[in-house]
């Protein structure tokens, strides 16, 4: 996984010189944060690939480029208005964008057309040159027309471009959104898996436009033979260590008069050799999360072989739910290394070069969290397992023991601590929706609250490290289907009245029909028309059975 991640990262870094380039324009990156991004490609969630790729790209973007970040579907399920410009276009936004992407939930719909329109407006596309980069794994689900929007933005924009990455889409699906790029002069890239993503990104790299041919100049006087290269730097992890020539990067900047970085000259990888024009430069050597820089003065006829020492080591981590278990590919690995403000997040097997010192490693598998501090010396390689210590639980609800499984949209599960607090309440641990809900939990006693529409059941359970549990919750419920022609509201009540003569309302719907799972028992059903007239019916619901009632 580490080798493929490096190759994808190397290809993606080239985006700084492609049609997706960030060098000259204000850019807003739009990330699809819909629930479909949890789908896996070659055993790895697409959202993880997107996060890692985005973080790698931003590491190579010059600090003075103005990059913004927008997402949709990251806060609410089923909402077409869940669009947010999280980081406005600004210089030095790389850390803020990476942190936003790493902490983001993926759960909503795909209003991609509205998102592109909002991004264009945020960039003032009718006044300034503007670029939007859309990364989506799905098609429009909120009624928007991306093709019509592309024509609108092209017609009214000063110089607007939309580049679109169709991540995991089929060719037919891609045609439905490629028009957004085509009509604005952008690129559409089809990527069906990690390998295809890498190939697509490399394929779209465009060489810079050639400089106009200079006017013929008088033939210069013969010059002494020049060396093949005048700049041949070497980078090592520690003093006396072997040169690093794989996975590392070099960034070369012009030096300003005050000694700060100017324009980016080039970004190269591996064993770097070059001919630099005479002048002052700032050269940055990177490997993983470690970097160092030097100011270099190049003079004509001289050869420079500077040594860069990263003072770094290599940390290899294998997050496991228990001792001897397979690596948890979805485990989140956060490493707070010396000098970092926003620690990066990795997933599953992790191999990374870090500045030497105390590395605070926090690994999360489900609700299990463990933190270790690892002392990493310069030049050292530490390879170790991180044991989180959780058990795995799969929860399902059944209308009755041995009966049909509840698999509708109204099925949900909430996990609480079994021990009550002094006020009688319990701490909520986590929740999930739908059948086969999965939980990774640290060892403890818990209560599972299963909900199927109007039926609610509590079931205690305990978790041991490494133990797998298949929790089957018998809801002792049936399905009640109510029809009330001409009514504006249907409401279900318990038949038993309290001491004040009131009946408890169980559920209601503003419709002529209402169907829901409900605990077995006797109920009163009241229909109400717009003129406030009411009709009432009685019904008995049996566990595991369906009953239909008409109230007129």
From TrEMBL:
Domain VWFA: 26-205
Gene3D superfamilies, sorted: von Willebrand factor, type A domain
Origin: domain of life: Bacteria
Protein name as it appears in the record: Mg-chelatase subunit ChlD
Source organism per UniProt: Mesorhizobium australicum (strain HAMBI 3006 / LMG 24608 / WSM2073)
